[in-house]
Amino acid sequence: MPKHLRIYTDGGSRGNPGPSGLGVAIHVMRDGAEGETIATLAEYLGKATNNQAEYTAIIRGLEHAKELGAEVVEMVMDSELAVKQLNGEYRVRNPDLAKRYLQIHDLRQQFKKVTFRHVRREKNTEADALVNLAIDRHLKKLNS
Known about the structure:
Layout: E1 4-13, E2 18-30, E3 33-48, H1 50-67, E4 72-77, H2 80-86, H3 95-108, E5 113-118, H4 125-143
Parallel strand pairs: 1-4, 4-5
Antiparallel strand pairs: 1-2, 2-3
């Protein structure tokens, strides 16, 4: 089982709030280098805000990392707000996000180390594509 994972997450909605989804791409880390993608998640969330979807993606990523037996997790995302909140730079004022923040805090305790890093959207294309896949699949079902 991989002990060190890099997890790219993204959440988005079409409209804010609107139909939303999450994307998670989990990569194994070997000797400090990113390896292959070992798991992906594309999940439709229903009506939610962008920030709710972002936080839910982080939760799902950490839950999956735990199932995989990871000890060290690098969370990578294009939500600067989520990264700054999770790194303690910004306060979480929204009550719904505060609940999700606490879930993430509790999940973090189950690992030796969890870090949160912001990347530009262009560096998070795999997770972004999974978000769109989840939403598109749901909307296609509604229209067929």
